[in-house]
Amino acid sequence: RLYQVEYAMEAIGHAGTCLGILANDGVLLAAERRNIHKLLDEVFFSEKIYKLN
After folding, report:
1. For residue 17, which of 13, 32, 47, 53 is within the disulfide window of CB 3.0 to 4.6 Å?
2. In b/e form, how buried is each residue of 25-41, taking b as 16+ CB within 10 angstroms?
3. pTM for the full model?
4. What 8-state DSSP symbol labels residue 17?
5. pLDDT of 32-52, one tens digit each?
6. For 5-18, how does the pLDDT look when each residue is reduced to its tens digit (9 = 90+)?
7. Domain range holding 9?
8. Dihedral through CA 24, CA 33, CA 47, CA 27, nearest 10?
9. What band does 22 get if pLDDT is binned at 50, 70 and 90?
10. So which domain of life are we looking at (predicted)?
């Protein structure tokens, strides 16, 4: 029995959705961020957007 594989499959089940789209003029990556900690300060972990060259 491979516990590492079972733990990996369980971690995938708890992960948020992720999407990648390849277009002629660029790449789009989008991911869902789920807050599993009720006491987590949302302002401290705010969204970050970076422009890539």
Report:
1. 32
2. eeeeeeeeeeeeeeeee
3. 0.46
4. P
5. 777 667 776 666 555 666 666
6. 999 888 887 777 88
7. 1-53
8. -10
9. very high
10. Eukaryota
Q: Are 42 and 35 in contact (CB under 8 A)?
A: yes
Question: Residue 41: what residue type?
Answer: D
Position 42 scores a pLDDT of 64
Q: How far apart are CA 22 and CA 29, in angstroms?
A: 9
**Amino acid identity for residue 51 in this structure:** K
The C-alpha atoms of residue 3 and residue 31 are separated, in whole angstroms, by: 27
- Number of folded domains that form the chain: 1
